[in-house]
Amino acid sequence: MKAATLAAPPRRKQPMLSRVANSLYWLGRYFERAENTARLLDVNLHILLDFEKLDDSSLTEHWLSLLHSTGDSELFFKSHEKADAASVTEFMTLDPANPNSICACFFAARENARMIRDRISLEMWETVNELYLFLKSPTALTTWQNGTTEFYARIKNTAHLFHGLTDATFPRDEGYDFIQLGRFIERADKTIRLLDLKYHILLPSTSDVGGAVDTAQWRTVLRCASALEAYRRFYVSEILPWKVAEFLLFSETFPRSVRHCLGQIDFYLHRISGTPSGQHRNEAERLCGRLVSELNYTSIDEVFKKGLHEFLGEILPVLDQIGEIIFDTFMAHNPIDEVAEVRLHQQEEQQQQTGSAQDS
After folding, report:
1. If DSSP codes are grouped into helix, strand and coil, which group holds residue 149?
2. Which of 15, 140, 226, 327 counts the most CB atoms within 10 A of its CB?
3. Contact yes or no for 150/68 (Cβ under 8 A)
4. Nearest CA to 37 among 148, 200, 172?
């Protein structure tokens, strides 16, 4: 018997309130962002172990690459003079002034969850609140100071728990679609940035490209994406740069590949709008469909011929544009003109009074 295919349901007659949709969307994004920030920091800390000797200049460039890849370098240097392991990891983990730090993301996630407490399950709320209380306590700082690996592992495991509980306890309605939409947009963004991070890492010399150090770095990238075992099952060969890039870009089955994430974004966009698959009703669906099509028909040879950094640099702006259109289409609402509202209310009252007088 032929397996049934998933199809987008009809457009809902009563769309979700933009405020609720916005909170659910960002709840999914903030959890994914915090988890992936932990992954990015982990990969940098592990890559340092592959270098035997690095001078101060090389170490600065190493940590600057992370700040550039996340777009936080300008904000960082407003409060820091030098980029090193201690300052960058603290800035991206604990600093509340950095809106992309792990703590700031979870504080924002908790606030979004609080505003829609009646829309999410008890288990989801307890997971958000428990992590919030941990990060606000002195124990969090102590755990981070005693070992970043344990701290980041807790962040990743809590994010996995939250998404698992969402799958197990949240109804498959429009709210669920918005959580998943935010989750996969953020995941695609961070997988692209993870690949681009490897491009920015400066090797001690050009002779190391393709050598042991280069291979170790690509292995670390796979581990950071929890992709090492899946990669080895798929290729059953040594770790090669073009194969790693191909796997994280084009895999149809690996859940963190850019291609898979874009396919999920396209699916949930159509679920929310009710547009049949293969068609588009808004600009976000059109742009996402075009990206999916390009990835379906692009080879890794074409990517490296153009340049991995250049190829990734073309996808990120489109992904950002899709996020902006999603907000404008489903979440933004025009400010209320109070004067016009009062006038309209007065007109309605006058019409009702006139109608009553005529009846009498």
Report:
1. helix
2. 140
3. no
4. 148
Residue with tokens 């006038």: 343
Query: Using CB atoms within 10 A of its CB, is residue 150 exposed (0-12), middle (13-18) or buried (19+)?
Result: exposed
| Spatial CA neighbour of 14 closest among 135, 160, 173 | 173
Could you tell me the residue ranges of all domains in the chain? 17-169, 172-203+215-332
What is the C-alpha separation between 258 and 193, in angstroms, rounded?
11
Give the whole-angstrom CA distance, residue 321 versus residue 284.
Answer: 8
- Dist. CA 263–CA 292, nearest whole Å: 6
Is 240 within 8 Å of 250 (Cβ atoms)?
no
How many residues in the chain? 360
The full 3-state SS of 245-293, as one line of letters, equals HHHHHHCCCCCCCHHHHHHHHHHHHHHHHCCCCCCCCCHHHHHHHHHHH
pTM over 0.85: no
Region label for 325, one of left (φ > 0), alpha (ψ between -120 and 50) or beta (otherwise): alpha
Residue 172's contacts (CB-CB under 8 Å, 6 or more residues apart) are none
188-217 pLDDT per residue, tens: 999 998 888 776 654 444 445 555 667 777
